[in-house]
Amino acid sequence: MGSVAIPLPAAAHPTAQEQAAANAAAASFAALTAKLDYLPSPEVEQVRQAYRFADEAHLGQLRNSGEPYITHPIAVAAQCAEWKLDAQALMAALLHDAIEDCGVSKHELIERFGAPVAELVDGLTKLDRLQFDTREENQAESFRKMLLAMARDVRVILIKLADRCHNMRTLSDVPREKWARISSETLEIYAPIAHRLGLNQTYRELQDLSFAHLLPWRHAVLSRAVGRARNRRRDLIQRVQRDLEQAFAQAGLDVRLAGREKTLFSVYRKMQNKHLSFSQVTDMFGFRVVVPKVADCYTALGVLHQLYKPSPGKFKDYIAIPKVNGYQSLHTTLIGPAGVSVEFQLRTESMHLVAESGVAAHWLYKAATPEGVSPDRLGTQWLQSLLDIQNETRDAAEFWDHVKVDLFPDAVYVFTPKSQIMALPRGATVVDFAYAVHSDIGDRAVAARINGEQVPLRSELHNGDVVQVVTAPDSTPNPAWLGFVRTGRARSKIRHHIKTLAQTESAALGEKLLAQALRAEGIDHLPAEAESGAVWDKLLRFTGSRSREELLTDIGMGRRIAGIVAKRLVALVAELGQRPDALLISRERFSGSNDTTGQGVVTIDGSEGASVSLAHCCRPVPGDAIVGYLGRGEGLVVHADDCVVAQRLQHKDAERFIGVEWSDEPVRTFETGLIVTVTNGKGVLARVASALAHAEADIAHIDMGQDSAQEATDLRFLVAVRDLAHLDTAMRLLKRTPSVLRVQRSRPQR
Fold this sequence. Notes:
Blueprint: H1 16-25, H2 29-33, H3 41-57, H4 71-82, H5 87-95, H6 98-102, H7 106-113, H8 115-124, H9 135-152, H10 155-169, H11 179-196, H12 200-214, H13 216-232, H14 234-251, E1 256-261, H15 264-274, E2 285-291, H16 294-307, E3 309-310, E4 316-317, E5 330-335, E6 341-348, H17 349-357, H18 361-368, H19 380-392, H20 396-407, E7 411-415, E8 421-425, H21 430-437, H22 439-443, E9 445-450, E10 453-455, E11 467-471, H23 488-520, H24 533-543, H25 548-556, H26 562-575, H27 582-591, E12 601-604, E13 612-614, E14 626-631, E15 635-640, H28 644-652, E16 657-662, E17 670-679, H29 684-694, E18 698-703, E19 712-721, H30 724-735, E20 740-745
Helix pairs in contact: 3-5, 4-5, 4-10, 5-8, 5-10, 7-8, 8-9, 8-10, 9-19, 9-20, 10-12, 11-12, 12-13, 13-15, 14-16, 17-18, 19-20, 19-23, 20-23, 21-23, 23-25, 23-26, 24-26, 29-30
């Protein structure tokens, strides 16, 4: 049983002179060689060759401290060697700045060191050679590339974290105006990734180093306070140590005890989040109990609970249900001598390895045992999900937005009906759960049960919930789900489906509009692509579109005018000898005399989907006279003919208007706005709602405004009706209702 030594806080780093001396010593390969005893001699020689290449490439380059630049790659490789990474990873660590800073090509690295090493280095290389509009876009694109490389090979992020660690250790040599940006980036991006992958030691160090450079004065004050508290509690900790040694000896347990101290940043964050003073932070010191077997963890827990009284609600079993990053331990807080709270963590040696090194423990295990460990338990499922998100998301900023959600997982654990445990971010909903199980289940989800009770799909999940998702084969994702889903995977899947659906519907609308415009020019139908390939090729060159589908989608989305494309198409088919039909032209123009663009008339029945929308300014219903506006990139927007917004658009953008008409049999109800002016009094809203219910008009939304104290108030309703006749019936019933002064449709003001 080992002795207890409360460690110095992670913030107590070597002085600048000591660090400089250590860095200078690290400039020689000999300092790294001592840590490579786990590699066979041929692989050590390969690492040596990478060192020589990097040393030559960086010759003459200096760091901000004035030391040779090669000290940085060696320090990064040394950290990777601590994690027992393989020779390829160590070579990539030594070469990680070669492409970016030394002009070495990826092809040259492939020839010298092989494709795997070159891929690792490329995954680490920033995108300095590409031009971006903003620094944020540059950072998002660079981060996307790093994350995707990391999803294919987790060694990329391990090298990147080692690189960031050494840069943070030497940040004092960098101009002070850069401290805040680099420290904030480390806290927001790299520390959460280290935590997500279970690299707790690295996570704590990155946090404390960022804190020291971001808020140096607060860091110094807190450091002195922790030092004084440590001195005051030394006797108390020694007493607890003696009690523990005696209790475990009597129980016959072989344990290794280690002291644990909260990092300065975690103390500061707890004070900030819970509005505590330093003296109110009680769990600053604790003990780690490491035992040989899993069963011994629970036996040791029993010994501790007999020795000191446990604090209610402060026990967590991360062995039965590990954290999403693979972390396993028992946590308990006990009331020790003098009423001081002391936290204990109980784990096996293998759990301790995972707790400190996370995903890197995969290589540490491989060094010790041939079979290694299950990658699922080490959080690599999250890495694989990044590739799924990338398949639906090509925009770097959107990708980063998805991933950022998953970096702060504060997980809840729920069960499938077959008792499989699933970890999701806190605040996750049934839809997040459905997509986590399988994308097909998410796409087709229609209802859900939590613990056997029917619940809405937006219901938030809690620890221990048993979740069952009901699916329907013809169901599709609802765009409204984007308002409440929490996981990046669910968000990207829903957006991908909406984009695909909108493009398909827009292409169909575009084909219809182009065919109608072509008829107005005297051509009866669109030329088939198979028969008139040359015509379509010339048309695509004229429009700049990549394919026929893209051109039709652009027309349907309003990015191109069907009449202009039709005129060009008529000219192209005329070159092949096909002449416009004069009779067809006169018939189309006579029947569409009110159609300003000659694109024919589009029929609206409510089934059009994302390519056609009803304007929110006037909210037309069947029976209203309507016009269609092809907004730029918005698809076809339908306005009431007397809508002032439509009239303003028609005045300045007339060529974008096309004829639209209602179908004789609409397939759904349509929402429109009503303003009901009432006299204030008890039960007024109930009477108005009852009148609408009697008229069979569904209420979609009510806005009562802020005028409740006045004698007369406007109630604004959004109601769903079948057509204008149905709306007139509802308005008549409302006018007969007691306390109703006036009823009118909501329309934009001139």
